[in-house]
Amino acid sequence: MSEEPPVTPSWLTPDPTAWASGGGGPMDNSTSLGTFPPDSLPPSQTPLLINPWDIVLCSSGTLIACENALVVLVIWQNPALRAPMFLLIGSLALADLLAGLGLVLHFTCAYLLQSESAQLLTVGLVVASFSASVFSLLAITIDRYLSLYYALTYNSERTAVFTYTMLVLLWGVSLCLGLLPVTGVNCLAEESTCSVVRPLTKNNIAVLSVSFLLLFGLMLQLYVQICKIVMRHAHQISLQHHFLAATPHYVTTRKGVSTLAIILGTFAACWMPFTVYSLIADYTYPPLYTYATLVPATYNSVINPVIYAFRNQEIQKALWLVCCGCIPASVAHRARTPSDV
């Protein structure tokens, strides 16, 4: 009676040793496992090779989960943090928290449980979570633009309704994207349809990549408009003081524009390599290239709390209260500047 093939403990390829190959094909298992070929050993004594890149992804997931869990906890426990801006930051933190948990659970299912159905569920969770993270970043950008363009009517009930609508839409679309590999849109039955990330199909990851490029283009356009609005307001205020270059408000406004550039640049640097690579490559490409672009993409979820949550004055106060039970004077009396945009 023939034995069933082992479950693949990898994101990328049925051969768990292929990550070590610099070429397009997998390595010879006999050279990877020493003098005893795996076929000559009983299943209970077969060595389990752990992909070091999967360890890196699992470690990143652990850091992401811990970091964003703190943000979610602070926003959840503080009734004062219920404005639309904080709801969107909470959505971003929750998405990144689930993404981190998904990376850890996928590692656990691949190497400990070795269950194909469980791996499909964790892949779906990761896809849905990272999709919700990117959509939340777009929603935050839209919220920042509206808060400047409609400054007089921003704090209205209409803004809250619009925010809740965005949250329902972004999580609904993300859930649908995450359910695709679970409901059968995967390449497990036909390996030739696999993308650079198994078990996602080439068509599936193409849709995700093109969607990301469209979202990035929209975010870029919105940030350009935000910069124009901020610079125009700063120019008007500076003219009233007759000292354009020397006005402190102008200096802080330039700092705010630089902050926006850093935010958008960080987002692009993390996600763009993997997005472009997944469009031009397929499962025949060396797994090393996929991991080298996928790992930086996960780092965006590590950076997000630093950019969007920990820099916020109200969240800083809440964090100090949770951790120390007090608020330092430097935090309590810090005035909001355009660099906080």
Automatic annotation (TrEMBL):
Any Gene Ontology CC annotation: plasma membrane
Transmembrane segments: 53-76, 88-113, 119-140, 161-185, 205-224, 257-276, 288-310
Location(s), subcellular: Cell membrane
Keywords: Cell membrane, G-protein coupled receptor, Glycoprotein, Lipoprotein, Membrane, Palmitate, Phosphoprotein, Receptor, Transducer, Transmembrane, Transmembrane helix
Matching InterPro entries: GPCR_Rhodpsn (IPR000276), GPCR_Rhodpsn_7TM (IPR017452), GPR12 (IPR000599), GPR_3/6/12_orphan (IPR000723)
PROSITE patterns documented for this protein: G_PROTEIN_RECEP_F1_1, G_PROTEIN_RECEP_F1_2
Chain spans, region Disordered: 1-24
Domain G-protein coupled receptors family 1 profile: 67-308
GO molecular function, one term: G protein-coupled receptor activity
Main localization, broad class: membrane
Membrane topology designation: Multi-pass membrane protein
Family: Belongs to the G-protein coupled receptor 1 family.
Name this protein carries in UniProt: G-protein coupled receptors family 1 profile domain-containing protein
Natural source organism: Zoarces viviparus
